[in-house]
Amino acid sequence: MFTAIATKEGREQALDEVNTLRETANSKRTSESLWHTWCEVMQSWDRPPMPLDVEKVGFMAASLRAGRYRSAEPYFNRARIEHIRRFDKSPGPAVLDAIRQYARAVERGTGPSRLKDALQLQEIEDYIELPTATELYTGDMQEALWPAGLVVLGSWWMTRSIEATAARVRHVTVNEAKTTVAWCLPASKTDTKALSATRTHRCHCGADQSSAQAHRHKNCPYHVMYDNIQLIAKVFSMNLQDEAFLDMPLFPTKSGLVLSHAASVRAIRAVAVKAGIPTTRTIDTTVLEKFGEHAPRVSGAQFFAAVLSWELYLIQLYGRWGSLAVARYVQDAPLARASSASKGVSIEDVMEMLKLTNPDEDIRKEINAIKRQLAEQRDEISFQAITDKAQAETRLALTRQQPRDETHEANHRRC
Ligand SMILES: [Zn+2]
């Protein structure tokens, strides 16, 4: 049984392996980042990071409070673990008591902890209009050609900002006969170059879908995409079949160039402003932006859950989530208001949307297997633990976002 650890090399390898399993890449990153912050703060107070004592707990709490952080617990926990690692014993009862009291002090009066950063698609529904000539040809030409189009389509396809800005017209296939539209997207955020996940939506307009014009103001993925592509062709006087047209950004700037990340975030906020949705929230005296780059991705997940009643595993599958991070967003979905696009989804729809063309028993089995797998995964990790972790990370990102808003990586990591 123990032949594998008979040699020194064998023992080291076994230890490495079990240590890798002990900490997932994600928890390792979080842990490193917490420790880094702890050390930085202690340096500002001119103290070594260890050992952990009552005074240092107070210093950390004061710094977090001054930086308008909402939670101190992850930092205290990280420092406590470091103390145990180094000294092989827990910090004394006075330190543990200080941790409890200061953790509460930091949280006191910081208001609701949830990041309300999703637009409700049904709330902007009435404002999804094609841009006017004035909007198209005046103002900053580096801004999005059609902000509402970007938000609506980004939500339906649950895109990350970088995926939407990098998309080209050629990545989308419009099938006018079937009134479906397919968009080729990266399968995961770690593989953003390879477009290997095709996600299809059909027209959600209902009975009278013969006229595209009649539905221009509605939140229909097919018709909004159709309008978006026609708009680009019209504004830049291009032929739908031209290679140059197919290479156009799917969400160009008013001058036809690739949209910058910052401009894509401004586009999201512009849509909210138009729909009369407040785009900032005030914590104490600090004004924070509510909508970040991942707003369409989160909005989409919430829309599918609350309005279209999709199950979590479908949203995860459709939105190309490699983890159950999506669970938090779905759980936070506000109570749904009816939408013109409300429609349940059948297993046949899923096959079509995921481009599963062989509608036989095998496909059903495959989907059921994924469903089972996710259900098991959910039990194992505990839904609450994931939610807690995601919320802690969110709070951290929120407070970090404050001094340098629109930091791509900080926000990007979570989605
Ligand atoms: Zn439609």
Brief synopsis:
With about 425 residues, the protein is mostly helical.
Verbal overview:
The chain is mainly alpha-helical and 415 residues long. Among the domains are: 17-107, no CATH class; 121-274, no CATH class. The protein has helices at 8-22, 25-44, 54-66, 73-87, 93-107, 121-124, 133-137, 147-156, 161-166, 221-235, 243-246, 261-274, 295-307, 312-318, 326-331, 347-353, 361-381, 383-401, 408-412, and strands at residues 172-175, 180-186, 195-202, 280-283, 286-289. It has a three-stranded antiparallel sheet with strand order 1-2-3, with helices on one face. A hairpin with an 8-residue loop joins strand 2 (180-186) and strand 3 (195-202). Helix 8 runs antiparallel to helix 10 (221-235) and helix 8 packs across helix 13. It is globular. The two termini are 43 Å apart. Zinc ion (ZN) is lined by residues 203-205, 209, 215, 220, 222-223.
List strands and helices in order, with pairings.
Layout: H1 8-22, H2 25-44, H3 54-66, H4 73-87, H5 93-107, H6 121-124, H7 133-137, H8 147-156, H9 161-166, E1 172-175, E2 180-186, E3 195-202, H10 221-235, H11 243-246, H12 261-274, E4 280-283, E5 286-289, H13 295-307, H14 312-318, H15 326-331, H16 347-353, H17 361-381, H18 383-401, H19 408-412
Antiparallel strand pairs: 1-2, 2-3, 4-5
Bound molecules: zinc ion.
| Through-space gap between termini | 43 Å
Based on CA atoms alone, the radius of gyration comes out at: 25 Å
The unreliable regions are: 111-116, 336-344, 378-387, 400-415
pLDDT averaged residue by residue? 77
Give the overall form: globular
The ordered string of helix (H) and strand (E) elements is HHHHHHHHHEEEHHHEEHHHHHHH
Q: What percent of residues are in strands?
A: 5-15%
Structural class: mainly alpha
Oligomer category: single chain
User: Can you count the helices?
Assistant: 19
Give me the side-by-side strand order of the main sheet.
1-2-3
Q: How would you sum up the major sheet?
A: 3 strands, antiparallel
Report the helical percentage: 40-55%
